[in-house]
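TA notes. Do not distribute before section.
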Amino acid sequence: MSTSKSRLSRRAFTASGLAAIGATAACSNGIGNTNDVKIDARVNATLNQMYDRYPGTRDLAQKSAGMLVMPLVTEAGFIFGGAYGRGALRINGATVDYYAALKGNAGLQLGAQQYSHVLFFMTDAALARFRRSSGWTAGADLEYVVIDEGDALTADTNTLTAPVVAAVFGQAGIRIGATIEGSKYTRIIP
């Protein structure tokens, strides 16, 4: 009897993790929205919000080879968790491709949050690697210039020479801190 309870507990535990990932996908982050016009409008609004709140990001944008703008990423977890969002790759101010961000994780976690982020590709080589990959994953080598813990842009000479720089902002929810490490970005057709 204890073996069947143990199996049931593991199944319930696994099901709760999968439900958390499913709940992440069901939040209002554009899932099921196949309209590229809406994605572009959200991207424009996100960039305006970022430039207003962090004026130093305008300089980053001008120096970058391209930017991946994810207007709304929803992250949720209870032991197992996940995140999902959709956005656009902009080069010289024009949308060239659409991408989805997906992240899964396990560990001590509880809660949900939503946030926006922008990846600045500071070199042509970094942008080309991103565009050629079948699924690019953000790693620990990513430099962060904004992580909504203050109102100041935290860019220095090391940050500005990094191939990819991230700005994470607009956090709302009951989880503490947002990171995009481990997020996988895949090109989509809206």
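Switch to the second chain here.
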Amino acid sequence: MKNLHEAILLLLYCWTGGVRGVNSRPGRIVNGHEAHEGEFPYQISLRRQMIHICGASVLEDSWALTAAHCVEGYEEEPKLFTLRLGSIQRSSGGSILEVRNIYRHPMYDPEDMNFDLALLRTAANAVRSVPNVSPIRLPEASELVPENTEAIVSGWGHMSTDEQILSPVLKYTTVMTVNQEKCQADLSEHGGITDAMFCAAARNTDACQGDSGGPISVNETLIGIVSWGVGCADPYYPGVYTRLSYPPIRRWIRLMTKL
């Protein structure tokens, strides 16, 4: 996967950090649906200097989870980041919490996007007082999600494939998990995937820029994090997600949060 992510990192630093993948075309949760108030109570808008850059998920009263590439280079500057919780509106409603600490997974590799996850810590018990917010369950280590399983991905990504305009309202769509060997074959020319990743896809719908770091869930379990892809809703390439049940990932989350 070397060379694969030079385009990601260029876009990441030139824009806002919400890049979903290599050669990503601007796009929202492509052909998704608008969420209703109270849906996705674990969904977070991660903001840098008050601007939405990525999604994130509520894990516990003082912890959230996002993609490592969303905070890369800013680990020592957590005060630049805030979280909007408890609202489906990107720029209003809910509550704003400050990020106190940023912890990237120690094995994160920006060259191939392996171990693309980071934990965000807020003030103790800060999430507990926010209405319409609740944590999402994490999978156990090695917990399997069979191929062709329906999964929900959500975010405030770009509004169209031609304009870099973020969606004002949270959107979501349904994708299907993809056989690991098939995904490896489909993405082999772009470096392939690792055991810390899995793929999901659906015809004409996908996550994209601005959705990075956000949740993909099955039956109210957070199985992954939006990480990277080739384009958006490209019929030939599935989207790639960080696999949260991968033992080195799940053990690290538990070590850091005791969850």
